[in-house]
Amino acid sequence: MKEISGGVCAAKGYKANGVHCGIRKSHTKRDLALITSEVRSAAACVYTTNLVKSAPIKVTRANVADGYAQAVICNSGNANTCNANGIEIAQNMCALVEKYTGIAAGDVIVGSTGVIGQPMSIDPMAAGMPELTEGLGDHSGFAADAIMTTDTFAKEAAVSFDIGGVECRMGGIAKGSGMIHPNMATMLVFVTTDCAISPEMLQSALSEDVKTSFNMVSVDGDTSTNDMVSVMANGLAGNAEITRGGAEFDAFCEALHAVTVKLCRMIAKDGEGATKLITCNVTGASDSETAKVVAKAVICSSLVKAAMFGSDANWGRVLCAIGYSGADVDVEKVDVSFVSAAGSVQVCRNGAGIEFSEELAKKVLLEDEVDIDVDLNSGDGCAQAWGCDLTYDYVKINGDYRT
After folding, report:
1. Is 186 a catalytic residue?
2. Which of 101, 186, 192, 193 is catalytic?
3. Is residue 184 predicted with pLDDT exceeding 50?
């Protein structure tokens, strides 16, 4: 397996585009994205667990109930959530795809992101469809731009991998900067692959993957109303269809995880107002579930996040987060280190403070990517979680997000 370029257009048979159609006030901001496959594809999705769900999620659930899709349409600038006519608008977005591409409306995954509870009209999207569809091509970047809200950069990833001697490709785009605290999910992620895999096995792969990828990301502890992760697999690579577990399914899952983890890191690093990507690596847990609980507690702690912003080696906040995580941990066995490109400094051993260089610690924590390594010294369980620091700009961004 190797990293390649191309995002959602890296695999065979996919085209994408993104345009400004008028939903966003800025005339330079793309706000409508479309991804299409040459053929009907196996499809799998996971959705937010927030009880308040957007209209696009409800329509997408119905459309992919049979395990197939052929296109994705998504707008930014309006979440289409808590709108009286939300279902109608989401269905009309799918109908526009059918009108301009010939792809059946019932084979469309639809997404929206932006402000919740704002009136919405189909008119801007209807006006933008000719440009959007006429420009379909190798434009994964345009689609990635069009789904951004407060993101500061577009998020794309792609890999090539081997299935039964056949080269397959997989790529994805994502948006996510605020309201990031998945329990699936709080961002929009669209993945495409030309690997042949049954809908059942595709759903199995995705549902399992999110447990150690997107469900291990947190920016601010708020679970969004809108978002989803979707995968389309059109089979155009020509491999024998994956219909059961085994080496080929494992290789597919490995490729999927490579794409999703890269997108996870981008989402966490681009948290609203963030200056640093924070990764918590937990080892030595009694089991993997304990490791996941601990890792997530550390990167979710507002006090840890604030300390990371100040490059303050306040390791007691890490221990505090572990202690209230609910995990069954012997705190008198816990070791903690801070690691970055500038070096490594151990700050806690066996649950107690040790002498360390504050000068080195400051140097380590001033980097824009910092790892918090936690060894529970109680077993072989391990996990990784991603977050970011908590800055003044987070409050500024969300203080006037709607206005």
Report:
1. yes
2. 186
3. no
Beta-carbon contacts of residue 309 (< 8 Å; ≥ 6 apart): 275, 276, 389, 390, 391
Q: Are 271 and 397 in contact (CB under 8 A)?
A: no
Q: CB within 8 A of 140, min separation 6: which ones?
A: 6, 7, 8, 9, 10, 16, 156, 171, 173
Q: 3-state class of 260 per DSSP?
A: helix
DSSP code at position 240: P
Show the domains of the chain with their CATH numbers.
2-269 (3.60.70.12), 277-399 (3.10.20.340)
Distances (CA, A) of 360 to 97, 275, 281: 56, 20, 20
Residue 261 near residue 351, CB atoms below 8 Å: no
**Is 375 within 8 Å of 295 (Cβ atoms)?**
no
pTM of the full structure: 0.89
Q: Please, what is the angle between helix 302-309 and helix 316-324, to 10°?
A: 160
| Structure-token pair, residue 363 | 């140097």
Sort 398 into a burial class: Cβ within 10 Å, 0-12 / 13-18 / 19+: middle
| pLDDT-wise least confident of 22-31, 134-143, 240-249, 342-351 | 22-31
* Residue 156 near residue 35 (C-beta atoms within 8 A): no
